[in-house]
Design brief:
single chain; 18% strand; Arc Repressor Mutant, subunit A; 2 domains; TIM Barrel; eight-stranded mixed beta sheet; 10 helices; three-stranded antiparallel beta sheet; 35% helix; alpha/beta
Length: 316
């Protein structure tokens, strides 16, 4: 079955082996973040809607999960803001009712969490991973370039309401851009907001793949550790890079077309290195290289060298 709304499984730095569920069209979001690995936002909106017939999503989930794959999480994520989909609550309830063994995570920028209907739909999820990178409006707008009507304090207030309503775990992401949100005043504001929100974890994240803007650079492990110390709060951790365990598996002849489709789909959604693709698919480096040679012929896949290696991506 060809999947339009599921992708992966991918090896996530925060969630392990994760099957992605994408409920919004490519780059439909309430933010246009300078660090986004999926590229610039093309449709910036705050209006919620059902972007795809929900029966399509449920059919794909039935087909995939009926094989009982080993997964750490089913993750609502993708190339836009998942809470913009008015179907997210129904899909979460379907998974919990039909496949209760699987844990559900929701990756969200937090822009709609001030809305009671959005918070109510997310309540059955096991983990919610919102983002808060600055409480200073000028910095917040520089980093996230939000749709009109969104402010930094509105995000904080929405996260406070979520903590009051939600019994699951909140893993708050703080995306660090050196020189932008790392001043003493910035970090003091973040500390005060974190104390109001009471997340279960605070995860300091930084650039791992090429972002939308070339000027965005990753923080070093030493910088993240220093920020962790400055915040001085329990539960603060730096997101570790993926530890790759490269496989030496082989693809059966009848599975080669599926492997090509999977690799192409992963690259279409976000830039990936050879190691990223190997870790996500379970294929060996040799097999990934063979697939890349095959799909690069006559395709739109390009290469870019970054600090972490050569990234393969599909330009807009």
């Amino acid at each position: 079955m060809q999947y339009s709304h599921l992708f992966g499984p991918v090896h996530s730095r925060r969630l392990g082996r994760s099957l992605g569920i994408d409920l919004v069209p490519f780059k439909t979001c309430s933010y246009d973040c300078v660090y986004c690995e999926c590229g610039p936002t093309t449709v910036e909106i705050l209006e919620r809607r059902e972007f795809f017939p929900i029966r399509e999503v449920l059919s794909e989930l039935r087909d995939y999960l009926s094989r009982s794959p080993e997964l750490d999480f089913l993750t609502f994520s993708g190339s836009g803001e998942p809470t913009l989909s008015s179907s997210i609550g129904e899909v979460i309830r379907f998974i919990k009712g039909t496949y209760p063994a699987y844990r559900i995570a929701v990756l969200t920028n937090g822009s709609l969490l001030h809305r009671p209907d959005v918070r109510r739909e997310l309540l059955p999820a096991d983990v919610i991973l919102p983002t808060l990178s600055s409480v200073v409006d000028q910095t917040f707008r520089r980093i996230h370039r939000p749709a009109p009507g969104i402010s930094a304090m509105q995000i904080v207030e929405g996260l406070e309401c979520l903590r009051n309503d939600y019994e699951g775990e909140i893993w708050l992401e703080v995306f660090i851009i050196p020189g932008v949100n790392t001043s003493p005043d910035e970090l003091a504001g973040l500390r005060a907001a974190i104390e109001r929100i009471h997340p279960d974890r605070v995860q300091l994240n930084t650039l791992d793949r090429p972002g939308t803007e070339d000027w965005v650079k990753p923080a070093t492990a030493e910088q993240l550790d220093e920020i962790r110390g400055i915040l001085g709060l329990s539960g603060v951790e730096a997101v570790e890079p993926v530890r790759y365990e490269l496989t030496a598996g082989s693809v059966m002849p009848g599975e080669w077309a599926d492997a090509i489709d999977l690799v192409h789909e992963l690259i279409r959604r976000r830039p990936c290195t050879l190691d990223d693709l190997s870790a996500s698919t379970g294929l060996s480096r040799r097999e990934i290289l063979k697939i890349l040679r095959e799909i690069q012929t006559g395709s739109d896949i390009e290469e870019r060298r970054e600090d972490r290696g050569i990234f393969y991506f599909c330009p807009e």
